[in-house]
Write a structure and sequence with these properties.
Blueprint lengths: L1 E6 L9 H15 L5 E8 L9 E5 L2 E5 L2 E3 L4 E2 L10 H8 L3 E5 L7 H9 L4 E5 L28 H7 L5 H15 L4 E4 L2 H10 L6 E3 L18 E8 L6 H9 L3 H4 L2 E8 L6 H16 L3 E3 L8 H6 L3 E4 L9 H8 L4 E4 L4 H4 L6 E4 L4 H13 L3 H7 L7 H13 L3
Parallel strand pairs: 1-2, 1-7, 2-4, 7-8, 8-9, 9-10, 11-12, 11-14, 12-13, 14-15, 15-16
Antiparallel strand pairs: 3-4, 5-6
Helix pairs in contact: 1-15, 4-5, 7-9, 7-13
Length: about 400
């Protein structure tokens, strides 16, 4: 089998969870004895490529320039390429039997039709990494406004409350366009049962939906510290929905002597890219903690630095304020032998076994996180006991095997 993995970004230029999962699949397919050839195609905004143009990054890895013209309808800007390699040329040259598409953000809904037109016999598998097909508000299923709330289901009237500049009819039309585009795919993959359930309820056929966990690169479990102080870590992009403000506020709910017994290390990026209101909120919460020596910032990190960052902490916090699908950091924490503190919500509740390899809080607010942190402070052996319950997460090789079986089973 010849395989092509398509992603909405390359991890060399932006290491989001979906991009890393897609690239891990590509590398595992390349190493698989049953795969004749595997290639990777990622969207880029590289200005040296005209819109629609395709360039080569390295052996078996390509970039396609795509810009978004209409986020509501997930439409890409028209191609401007008049010469040089374009997507149909690349697809004809690679001749994949199976195309594994990870996300349509930036690439546009039309991508699936383009692949089908160029490769009528290929098996197309679309992986859904968030709720973008359902939710026009950044795919989060969280309401817009000053007091964001979790959204249980999309409906035109509810969607217009988040995006009032569009008429109600636009959201019904959006659903029709997305379902029509998705019909070009043979199968859909969700990395969590929760996400699969949301898309099933929204309209995707159950028989075409599969749940396949994202693979995590295997790692050697690291020894934990002494337990005093409790070393708490947060990793990833520091967007509001990732909940850094919740974790910082939770520390303010602890008494001074309690805070003195812990250290929070934040290894994250893109806080500077968030709006000024959120940055100011984080600043006001962080400054007193910095003054007490409780909080330290370690900044962004490369993939090769992850083990060293994990060695600095004993417990990984995932305080996300949205549903979350399958946070990459949970798999990474487990691979390195670190228990996880997260919310009993979405895919997080599937990945973390409460009381076995981590703790789940029922309420995602700061007081609930503070109460959970107190449990670790009261019992210095709690983190060590949870670490013993960790099972190695699925690897990219496991993921590749399951994706290949899915593709082979398509008639």
């Amino acid at each position: 089998m010849r395989a092509l993995v398509v992603a909405h970004g390359h991890p060399d230029f932006g290491a989001g969870g979906g991009e890393i999962a897609a690239y891990g699949l590509f590398r595992a397919l390349r190493a698989h004895p049953g795969v004749e050839a595997a290639d990777f195609l990622a969207r880029t905004a590289e200005p040296r490529l005209v819109v629609g143009g395709v360039g080569r990054l390295r052996e078996n890895e390509y970039l396609v320039r795509r810009d978004t013209a209409d986020w509501l309808r997930l439409a890409a800007a028209p191609d401007e390429a008049r010469a040089g390699r374009r997507l149909p040329d690349l697809l004809a040259a690679l001749r994949p039997d199976a195309v594994f598409v990870h996300h349509v953000a930036h690439l546009g809904l039309g991508l699936l039709g383009e692949i089908r037109a160029s490769l009528p016999a290929a098996r197309i598998v679309l992986t859904l990494h968030d709720f973008l097909g359902i939710c026009a508000h950044r795919g989060l299923m969280v309401t817009a406004g000053e007091a964001p709330a979790l959204c249980e289901a999309a409906a035109p009237e509810r969607c217009r409350a988040c995006l009032p500049s569009h008429p109600t009819s636009a959201f019904a039309e959006r659903r029709r366009l997305v379902l029509a585009a998705f019909a070009r795919a043979d199968r859909f993959v969700a990395p969590s049962r929760f996400l699969a359930g949301r898309y099933r309820d929204w309209g995707l056929p159950l028989e075409r939906l599969a749940v396949i966990a994202n693979g995590t690169e295997p790692a050697e479990p690291l020894p934990l510290g002494s337990g005093e102080p409790l070393r708490l870590g947060m990793f990833g992009q520091l967007r509001p929905e990732k909940g850094l403000h919740v974790l910082l506020a939770a520390l303010h709910h602890l008494a001074g002597p309690e805070r003195a017994r812990l250290r929070l290390v934040v290894s994250g990026s893109r806080l500077e890219a968030q709006d000024g209101i959120y940055r100011e909120l984080v600043r006001r919460l962080a400054e007193p903690l910095e003054g007490e020596g409780v909080l330290s910032w370690r900044g962004a990190y490369g993939r090769g630095e992850l083990a060293a960052r994990m060695a600095e902490i004993d417990l990984v916090a995932v305080p996300s304020t949205w549903w979350e699908n399958a946070p990459l950091v949970i798999g990474e924490a487990f691979a390195h032998g670190r228990p996880v503190l997260a919310i009993r919500r979405g895919g997080m509740a599937e990945m973390v076994r409460d009381g076995v390899d981590g703790l789940l809080v029922d309420d995602g607010g700061a007081p609930a996180f503070a109460a959970a942190i107190r449990r670790f402070l009261a019992d210095p052996e709690l983190a060590r006991g949870l670490a013993r319950g960790i099972r190695p997460p699925p690897t990219p090789a496991d993921m590749a095997e399951t994706y290949l079986a899915l593709a082979r089973g398509i008639a």
